[in-house]
Design a protein that fits this description.
The chain is mainly alpha-helical. The chain has helices at 2-31, 39-54, 64-71, 78-103, 121-155, 157-171, 180-197, 201-221, 236-239, 243-280.
């Protein structure tokens, strides 16, 4: 249990160090000088310094190796990158359709896009892009790097995924019980990719891509249609299972099957790489 508590504590510290300064700058930009995305270069500099530090750069020298190991950001060969991204993107598609199915079964909480009201597109678009990248870098460093790695080595991957999937909404002060399986699925997706690749780099790309989709969907529609129904009347236990519900359910099933197949291939490529490394050693 000490390992879990320490890993969770370090992960949360990494999360706060990366996100708090960025959030302050994001909010300030939306409230002051909103005609220009003036916070973008400042946030970019902060995230660059953050990435280097959590990866082992800077003082104290005695923690450099531990920080580098905890981040788990080693480079990968092309084949592993390709299958990691294929499996992850198919998984994201499956999750979108899963939310659409869940969306018809229970009433999910709506998202709020009011912060963007009146802000010109020249400011909103760069901030949405950068916020997706910041989330990808910081949250993967915190959850799949510092938090999952230590727990995984001590207790195995399933326990690590359970902890990270629970801590993600808790750390965002956004724990909705009905969405807990969704957060576990997200943790399983990014966490398994990281486990097989032994690097958080593909998960960063996938996390950023997923956030780009959700950020722009929220901004363009005022709410995420796939996450919050327009009214409780759309629930299938009131309206019945219509064609749209069955299409979403079928699309989810197909995307899930494709995801499992891609992960099986990723696991095979990862195993071959490890075997070749051992042989070379």
């Amino acid at each position: 249990m000490d390992v879990v508590l320490k890993a969770v504590g370090l992960g949360v510290l990494v999360l706060l160090a990366g996100t708090l300064p960025c959030n302050v700058l994001f909010v300030a930009n939306l409230q002051h000088g909103r005609g220009l995305p003036w916070s973008v270069p400042l946030i970019t500099i902060w995230i660059a310094l953050f990435w280097r530090y959590v990866g082992g750069w800077g003082p104290p020298a005695e923690t450099a190796a531990a920080r580098r190991e905890s981040l788990r950001a080693d480079p990968l060969p092309g084949a592993l990158w390709a299958w990691a991204l294929a499996a992850g993107l198919l998984g994201l598609v499956a999750l979108v359709f899963a939310l659409r199915v869940l969306n018809r079964v229970v009433l999910l909480p709506a998202q709020d896009a009011s912060a963007f009201a009146g802000v010109p597109a020249v400011t909103v678009i760069p901030l949405l892009i950068l916020s997706a990248a910041v989330a990808g870098v910081v949250e993967e460093a915190a959850f799949r790097g510092y938090m999952q790695g230590a727990i995984e080595r001590r207790y195995g991957l399933p326990v690590a995924l359970l902890v990270t999937g629970t801590m993600f909404p808790l750390s965002h002060l956004d724990f909705t019980p009905v969405l807990w399986p969704y957060y576990l699925a997200v943790a399983a997706l990014y966490g398994t990719v990281t486990h097989l690749c032994r690097s958080i780099r593909p998960a960063i790309v996938l996390h950023t891509a997923g956030n780009l989709y959700s950020n722009f969907d929220l901004w363009l529609h005022g709410r995420s249609d796939w996450q919050a129904p327009a009214s409780a009347g759309a629930l299938v236990w009131k309206t019945g299972a219509d064609a749209a519900f069955w299409i979403s359910l079928s699309a989810f099933a197909l995307a899930a099957l494709a995801t499992f197949a891609a992960f099986a291939r990723l696991a095979a490529v990862s195993s071959s790489r490890r075997s070749a490394s051992r042989s070379g050693a």
